[in-house]
Amino acid sequence: MPRLPWLRFLSATAIGVAWAVSFPRPGVAGFAWIVPGLLLAVTGGIPSGLAFRVGYIGALAHFLVSLSWLRFIPFPAGAFAGWFLLSLFLALFPPLWALACWRFAQRLGLQATAQATPGWMDLADRLMALPWVRLNVWFLLCAAAWVTWEMLITRLFGGFPWNLLGASQYRMIPLIQIASATGVYGVSFLVVWFSVSLVTAVVFLARDPDRPALWRRPLVFPALMVVATAGSGFLGIASDTPQPRQLRIALIQPSIPQTVIFDPDATTNRFETLLQLTEQALAAQPDLVLWPEASLPGGISQQDFDRLTARIREAKVWMIFGSDDVEEDPPVAPGAEPSTRAYNAAFLVNPEGQVVAKYQKRRLVMFGEYIPFGRWFPFLQRLAPIGDGFHPGAKPVPFSLGSLDVTTSALICFEDNFPQEAREHAAAALDFLVNLTNNGWFGESSAQWQHAANATFRAIETGIPLIRSCNNGLSCWIDARGRMHSARIAEGRNIYDAGFEIISVAFGRPRPTLFLRVGDAFGWGCVLATFWYLRPRQFAVARSAGTPSRNPAPSPSPFP
Fold first, then answer.
1. Residue 393: which CATH number?
2. Of 197, 393, 508, 542, whose CB is crowded by the most CB atoms within 10 A?
3. Residues 102-133 pLDDT 10s
4. 35 to 18, 62, 123, 197, 342: CA distances (angstroms)
């Protein structure tokens, strides 16, 4: 890799852009298999401060490109601020990953050098000097450290598990079946393991092209694991038997512009659009009708609700729709006004037109549904005009469709990005999951495609189908193997247009996945391994004496 800092920064920027391009759209998934190794290479052989800055620039380029759809939110000040600030925050993690990887190499015996900037050739010599077992342990630790930061961003400050590296492989159906045991983190692990070993092999080849056995040895284990994983997934798919049951579901996609979502004058038109599309869909005699998230922001009037339930009773159909929900708290003192709490909710309506269950969204979108620290920093309210925002719900709620002998549960908005969230919902022995979402905030951008790619893994992890009802975007269903079914995609229609889809969802034999039983055990194992190898030296056992090293000598190595 280049020694000059500006060349490293330029290389890191190109790596970050390639990383972003691996996600939809355009979704060149192959780039994901080289990015981690290249990011590690561009930060190697230089002092830790410079390595962090180089890695940070590459990561920032990635997030600015991959999350550029945030700019389309129709509140320009908040949209651009959120896009930039979120990218600045998320970009902290990849350079820390690179620093951790080079620390692992030192712990495993990578020799120091007296040179100020040794460059990659000298670094290659010292990597080549590592015993074969330790070199492969290093690859595994690099992959574990990547999973560790993905576990962190899934949970830190509410979590933002968008575009985890493994999600870039959502179309590689046999390969991603490993997620049924490890979650999406297992796919990320596999990609990073192979990527770091591949770049190391290329460096070995460049350093000593006359010794092919030398550059082949880093690739043996990860390549075999990739082949074995894909082969196992292919055999599992081939052994599937047809599902015994089918349910006809109408997905209503109104494609309502978000510029009018807070306009009271547009409420009537919004409801009329939804009702008209529903009446057209009911002609196909579905068993269940789905409206997307926030179909009725601000709630629904009694008159409109009566019109809707009249059509439901006439068609004898079940319905799930998204709307605001308001609950009153008792007054804190006699004579005081009762306070209210608003929720982003999903409602289940039976064929008699009665609301029989509701679920209140638990994972709220920062600056979209609540203002963090808004009570202490009122100026933050200017970034997004959402008033007091929503409150989080308490727990998952199973929706039992009694006459259909079906049980489902609703995930709202980006809740289907969280592996642990979908697992908690699926714990109620569901036939399938439902996601109601509103990606209309982001216009006709890549957000809809990225969201659907992320959601693919929830079906594989839980072993049950996932039905997506969107305001605009990919209204479709994803089977338990992660295959996406959508008439719009198959027929080449615009996925962002208004309309409806009649889908036949096959279900009935849930796969009892390991992930459903043990959750993020694989991810937590990676976290444990990462922090064990990053523990302070005074708690490590000195190799030479076999006793704790209380006063370790400072390493002259310029590696991070």
1. 3.60.110.10
2. 197
3. 999 989 988 665 454 456 677 778 888 888 89
4. 7, 11, 19, 12, 43
Residues 41, 135, single domain; the answer is yes
Q: Say if pTM beats, i.e. exceeds, 0.85.
A: yes
Q: How confident is the model at residue 76 (pLDDT cuts 50, 70, 90)?
A: confident
For the record, the structure tokens of 151 come out as: 């576990």
Nearest Cα residue to 145 out of 186, 179, 98: 98
pLDDT tens per residue, range 489-507: 777 888 999 999 999 999 9
Mean pLDDT of 67-72: 94
What is the arithmetic mean of pLDDT over 39-57? 94
Structure tokens of 61? 């380029």
**Same domain (yes/no): 474, 530:** no
Q: Are residues 163 and 271 in the same domain?
A: no
Distance CA 364, CA 368 (A): 8
Q: What is the pLDDT of residue 428?
A: 81
CB 437 within 8 A of CB 466: no
Same domain as 265, residue 202: no
Cβ burial, residue 32 (10 Å; 0-12/13-18/19+): buried
In this structure, the answer to whether residues 231 and 281 fall within a common structural domain is no
Contacts 24+ apart (CB under 8 A), 297-301: 297/261, 297/262, 297/323, 297/324, 298/264, 298/267, 298/324, 299/323, 299/324, 299/325, 299/326, 300/271
How would you list the strands of the sheet with 355-360, edge to edge?
A: 355-360, 340-349, 318-328, 288-290, 245-253, 499-507
Could you count the other beta carbons within 10 Å of the beta carbon of residue 300? 19
d(CA 338, CA 351): 34
Domain of 187? Answer: 5-238+521-539
Query: According to the 3-state scheme, what is the secondary structure of 239-254?
Result: CCCCCCEEEEEEEEEC
Looking at the structure of the chain, the number of domains it has is 2
* Amino acid (one-letter) located at 346: A
Same domain, 350 and 486: yes
